[in-house]
Design a protein that fits this description.
The chain is α/β, with parallel strands linked by helices. It has 2 domains: 86-343, Aspartate Aminotransferase, domain 2 (3-Layer(aba) Sandwich), CATH 3.40.640.10; 346-461, Aspartate Aminotransferase, domain 1 (Alpha-Beta Complex). Helix content is 35%, strand content 12%. It contains 14 helices and 13 strands. The protein has helices spanning 27-30, 55-66, 86-94, 107-123, 139-160, 178-186, 205-210, 234-243, 261-264, 332-370, 405-413, 444-463, 466-478, 504-508, and strands at residues 132-136, 169-173, 190-194, 216-222, 250-253, 277-283, 295-299, 311-315, 318-322, 373-374, 385-389, 421-423, 432-437. A 7-stranded mixed β-sheet has the order 1-7-6-5-4-2-3, sandwiched between helices. The radius of gyration is 26 Å and the shape is globular. The protein starts with 26 loop residues before the first helix and ends in a 7-residue tail after the last helix. Its EC number is 4.1.1.15. Its cofactor is pyridoxal 5'-phosphate. One of its GO terms (biological process) is L-glutamate catabolic process.
Length: 515
């Protein structure tokens, strides 16, 4: 309702629109945020206000706006860390004003970055004398850098041989995160996919190697797929390439698994112990246990990172090599990563990851007892997460349900939880599924609350009518930010970009998964 329609008590006239308080009343006299003129005015959304707002009121207005956001700790869609110790938060807060790229002004911060890259490279069994690494704002940037390095190295080799370098391609599973599709599109690289099936949710090594040709810049192997958390068989791909005497390198996308597998499954060969692996990315803000956003990328040696991609920045008479897509960025997350590495040590990380695996297995069993089909691995053979779906008629149920995983996602949200539903990758018959990520602060007691609410929501779905379920889904779609179906013109500012046709989502209906 507009201000012109808001009537005063006892029949008094309406508030003047955007009235300015007179001296001695209004904002100053009440001392209350909600007694100020700002409490009865809409929040600015298009133009910068002409006049300032008191800091306390600005804080409260923004905080109130954010109050309808979901609780990050109940957001089980995301791998992103939602807990750090107070000491870590204090260090990061103190570093918020530091621009990481200013090596001359902040040489010790640059050193801490190098310490982290060294430690992560060592964790991945990188050669200590030759490996090189850098921090990024996340795995997406790390992947972009790795793809650039593979493409440039392939191009230089082709040119040295006097051959065309016009049609590079990259091979990967159709279960890759959307940043891989972006990298291929942005850098003009042909995508060659090994599609998943209803029973196989990872890349098939023989199919991947069979797709290679002289224009292949690399094969992507995922250590923990976005949908089911499964580890792809890096060593099998490498062995097949060796057998064929192929020069195609492997990049490992260890965004989620890079800080899990070394502590839970240390004998699994997926990293630089595997001969054809030339680069690895990992997200510090996932199981590296740092708030977003920080990622890392490590190369086996400078041989796999062409020199013409590197820029040198001089500080205190010494040169610091820089290879990033971003230039300015905060130093806080890099400092937070170093804190976690030295605070926890290997045994601390091992204890945390062990607990997460135990809770994931406990949740898996509970969901199986409710009647779900489990799609993820257990006992540390994959990420600490649970992927699941409703059974079909050919899997023992009397008849298919009148509702699907997307309906359950809407219902469980009414209890405060965020659990995403997805449509799987191509060649899975548009299989629907859900995913719960077990993070550091997802305790056994919180898990029990979730199980109770899952049972309750499934019971309600069985009883509620199709019309009610459809209205709930329509309501959620209409109120989504930038929704395709939203009636709010402000939310449709980019509607011309919504019907994408260039991605696996547009071509096959695959849902771009949350990180």
């Amino acid at each position: 309702m507009s201000l012109s329609h808001m009537k005063m008590y006892e029949g008094k006239t309406a508030f003047p629109k955007y009235a300015t308080p007179q001296a001695g009343n209004g904002d100053q006299s009440t001392g209350s945020v909600y007694g100020s003129r700002f409490a009865i005015a809409p929040l600015p959304s298009v133009d910068i206000p002409d006049e300032p707002m008191p800091s306390g009121i600005a804080y409260r207005m923004v905080k109130d706006k954010l109050s309808l956001d979901n609780n990050p700790k109940l957001n089980l869609a995301s791998f992103v860390s939602t807990y750090m110790e107070e000491e870590a938060e204090k260090l990061m807060t103190e570093a918020m004003s530091k621009n990481f790229i200013d090596f001359e002004e902040y040489p010790e911060t640059a050193e801490i970055n190098n310490y982290c890259a060294n430690m992560i490279g060592s964790l991945f069994h990188a050669p200590k004398d030759t490996s090189i690494g850098t921090s990024t704002v996340g795995s997406s940037e790390a992947i972009m850098l790795a793809v650039l390095a593979m493409k440039r190295r392939w191009k230089l080799r082709r040119q040295a041989e006097g051959k065309s370098a016009d049609r590079p391609n990259i091979i990967m599973s159709s279960a890759v995160q959307v940043c891989w599709e972006k990298a291929a599109s942005y850098f003009d690289i042909e995508e060659r996919y090994v599609n998943c099936t209803r029973r196989r949710f990872v890349i098939e090594p023989e199919q991947a190697v069979a797709l290679c040709n002289e224009n292949t810049i690399g094969i992507v192997a995922i250590l923990g797929t976005t949908y089911t958390g499964a580890y792809e068989d890096v060593k099998a791909i490498s062995d097949l390439l060796e057998k064929q005497d192929s020069e195609v390198p492997i990049h490992v996308d260890a965004a989620s698994g890079g800080f899990v597998a070394p502590f839970i499954n240390p004998n699994l060969e997926w990293d630089f112990r595997v001969k054809r692996v030339v680069s690895i990315n990992v997200s510090g803000h996932k199981y590296g246990l740092v708030y977003p956003g920080v990622g890392w990328v490590v190369w086996r040696s400078s041989e796999y990172l062409p020199q013409d991609l590197i820029f040198n920045i001089n500080y205190l008479g010494a040169e610091q090599s820089s290879f990033t897509l971003n230039f300015s960025k905060g130093a806080a997350q890099v400092i937070g990563q170093y804190y976690q590495l030295i605070r926890l040590g290997k045994s601390g990380f091992r204890d945390i990851m062990y607990n997460l695996v135990q809770i994931a297995d406990y949740l898996t069993q509970a969901l199986r007892e409710i009647g779900f089909i489990i799609m993820s691995e257990t006992s540390g053979r994959g990420l600490p997460m649970v992927a699941f779906r409703f059974p079909n008629r050919d899997e023992g149920v009397l008849e298919d349900k009148d509702f699907d995983e997307f309906a359950l996602a809407h219902y469980i949200k009414s209890r405060g939880w965020v659990i995403p539903a997805y449509t799987m990758a191509p060649d899975t018959d548009k299989m629907k599924m859900m995913r719960i990520v077990v993070r550091e602060d997802f305790s056994r007691s919180r898990c029990d609350l979730l199980i109770k609410d899952m049972k309750l929501c499934c019971q309600h779905l069985e009883k509620d009518s199709q019309q009610f379920i459809k209205r709930l889904e329509d309501h959620a779609a209409d109120h989504a930010v930038a929704s395709r179906t939203s009636k709010d013109p402000m939310k449709n500012a980019m509607t011309e970009y919504k019907q994408e046709r260039h991605s696996l989502q547009g071509k096959a209906g695959k849902t771009h998964a949350v990180c």
